[in-house]
Write a structure and sequence with these properties.
With about 170 residues, the chain is of the alpha/beta class. The chain folds into two domains: about 130 residues, 3-Layer(aba) Sandwich (Rossmann fold); about 30 residues. It is about 50% helix and about 15% strand. It has six helices and five strands, in the order βαβαβαβαβαα. Helix 1 runs parallel beside helix 5 and helix 5 packs across helix 6. It is globular. It starts with 9 loop residues before the first strand and ends with a helix.
Length: about 170
């Protein structure tokens, strides 16, 4: 979504291009809230220099939150957290025979002083990473805070409507 005139407020990194279908829901939430972002591939292991250069450049351009999705060893979020003081959110991706447990543990177990906020695995985590990034940005953006409140009110109304419709179908 980021254009030449809109600096990325959020960076969304994936360790592998094959993670795109899993992480895409993150960008959909960011789009729905009007948050600018950069969505790219950068690996903690295969392209550590690229990861470092991206963090440095994006931070200099005003990026406020980094979201990192990775599976297996899942070092991407930690590698980014080592290079910035901005919030880092990790999305563990189920990419191995261990069903994502390896990625979850690797993402959540950071050393003191280099935290990574860890969300759920896969698509649910991708969505929540975007929501958490939006909440962080909304601390300094009243208009975004209002958009978040409206989105939550819609979720509440949709859930109540679904409950009423289900009750009506099964009313005896």
């Amino acid at each position: 979504m980021t254009s030449m005139t809109t600096p990325a407020q959020v960076a969304v990194f994936m360790g592998s291009a094959s993670d795109e279908p899993t992480v895409k829901p993150c960008t959909e939430v960011l789009d729905s809230l009007g948050i600018s972002y950069l969505f790219t591939v950068s690996s903690a292991h295969r392209t550590p220099e690229r990861t470092e250069a991206l963090v440095t450049r994006l931070e200099a351009e005003g990026c406020q939150v980094f979201i990192c999705a990775a599976g297996m060893a899942a070092h991407l979020a930690g590698a980014v957290a080592a290079r910035t003081q901005k919030p880092v959110i990790g999305i563990p991706v189920a990419a191995s025979a261990l069903g994502g447990m390896d990625a979850l543990l690797a993402t959540v177990q950071m050393p003191p002083g280099f935290p990574v906020a860890t969300v759920a695995l896969d698509k649910a985590g991708a969505r929540n990473a975007a929501w958490l990034a939006a909440q962080i940005l909304a601390l300094a953006d009243p208009a975004l805070s209002q958009r978040l409140a409206a989105a939550r009110a819609k979720m509440k109304a949709d859930a109540e409507k679904a409950g009423e419709e289900l009750e009506a179908r099964y009313r005896k």
